[in-house]
Fold this protein.
Amino acid sequence: MSDYQIPDDLKAIPALIALAPVEANAFLAFNHAVERKDGLIPPKYRELISLAVALTTQCAYCLDVHTAQAARAGASREELAEAALIAAAVRAGGTLGHALLAQRLFERHRGEGTG
């Protein structure tokens, strides 16, 4: 299916909000709070953080939105590249951490350990 994720899907947000207005408005209020311009973390860094998270969650829509907002906030291509590689390293580190947990769980399930 070639149209699984398309940018025009973002135009359906108002319809989704109308279907669950209490929950959607709470989400939007939270989202606006974390995207505020007057926080201690400047907007450009907020967008680079958002982009790194979007890369790890692999949300195409988030990538689209936060790449655009990072560009508007003054981020450079080099900063986007560094954020992407930091996200990749952290995600790889998470894999290693879960591998350690899997080893411990494996031992537990085989009756080899007490952990």
About this structure: Residues 7 and 61 are 7 Å apart (CA to CA). The mean pLDDT is 92. The two ends are 45 Å apart (CA to CA). The first helix runs from residue 13 to 19.
